[in-house]
Design a protein that fits this description.
There is one protein chain. The chain is α/β, with parallel strands linked by helices and about 270 residues long. It has two domains: about 60 residues, no CATH class; about 130 residues, no CATH class. About 25% of the residues lie in helices and about 15% in strands. The strands form two sheets. The chain has a five-stranded mixed beta sheet with strand order 4-6-5-8-7. Strand 5 and strand 6 form a beta hairpin. InterPro entries: CxC2_KDZ-assoc. This is CxC2-like cysteine cluster KDZ transposase-associated domain-containing protein. It holds the Pfam family CxC2.
């Protein structure tokens, strides 16, 4: 830390530089070749956050709808969103818009980068259409409801929370509130309350993975055929005959016997 303190002015200068235009100067031109339009937007999540126009921003973020973008007002960078720029994410047609469903649906998406609003175009073809919940799951978005979902949580957010809850005992409310503050730390955007939906997604996600890791997904009878105790995790330290107990352990002298652990010799579940 003493070595870093000699360079802290440089670090602070770079932070201030990121708050401004940096090497760019006004008027700004879209950084993508052959465009030439005025560039007023930058992405905070792309490696190279060059300034581009609104059309190029949507075109380059068709597969990255949760990236955070900013708009140059002329004096400072202001938070914006791909949703406000008109980005529509098609589902079910490998990136193409469904001809049977030209309308869009606004989804509230909970991610580790914050809470987003994204317009999606569901596939509603009569012959090959999948339910909306399946279309969302295939892009790694967990729907909060099975019918007409309006809120989803990304697999990344759910995985991250489960790891944090195990390692740091973080509760669901504090994690959700952190996502709210990442989105709007000043509380001026009037975000929709989606805490109950977040709770439901976490519980369903945890239960589904428990069943999957217990091989219930390969059972012809499905999850409903799971018997009592099949999802339990055996304790490797508990004495179990035929596994970690020597032959003839029941005939061992009292000073070496496992009589005090007879309650655990049934499997240690």
């Amino acid at each position: 830390i003493m070595e870093w303190s000699r360079f802290r002015d440089i670090f602070i200068d770079e932070l201030i530089r990121l708050d401004g235009l940096g090497w760019q100067s006004s008027p700004m031109v879209c950084a993508l070749p052959l465009c030439g339009k005025e560039g007023l937007y930058r992405c905070l999540d792309c490696f190279n956050s060059s300034v581009v126009c609104s059309g190029c921003m949507c075109a380059t973020h068709q597969c990255h709808p949760l990236h955070r973008i900013e708009f140059w007002t002329g004096d400072f960078w202001q938070k914006s969103s791909l949703h406000l720029l008109g980005l529509i994410v098609p589902l079910g047609h490998n990136g193409g818009v469904c001809p049977s469903s030209p309308s869009t649906t606004n989804l509230t998406i909970i991610d580790i980068s914050g809470i987003h609003t994204v317009s999606v175009n569901f596939c509603d073809c009569d012959s090959v259409c999948l339910p909306h919940r399946n279309q969302l799951l295939r892009v790694r978005w967990w729907p909060a409801t099975v019918d007409r979902p309006q809120t989803v949580a990304t697999f990344t957010a759910l995985d991250t929370f489960l790891q944090l809850s195990l390692q740091s005992k973080l509760n669901m409310y504090d994690f959700y509130l952190s996502m709210v503050h990442l989105t709007d730390n000043a509380g001026v955007q009037n975000l929709k309350e989606r805490y109950k939906e977040w709770l439901r997604c976490v519980r369903e996600f945890r239960h589904a993975h428990t069943a999957k890791r217990s091989a219930c997904g390969h059972d012809p009878g499905g999850v409903q055929a799971t018997q009592s105790g099949e999802c339990a995790v055996e304790c490797p330290a508990c004495p179990q005959p035929g596994r970690n107990l020597p032959e003839g352990w029941e005939n061992s002298p009292s000073c070496q016997s496992y009589s005090d652990n007879t309650a655990f010799t049934g499997g240690g579940l």
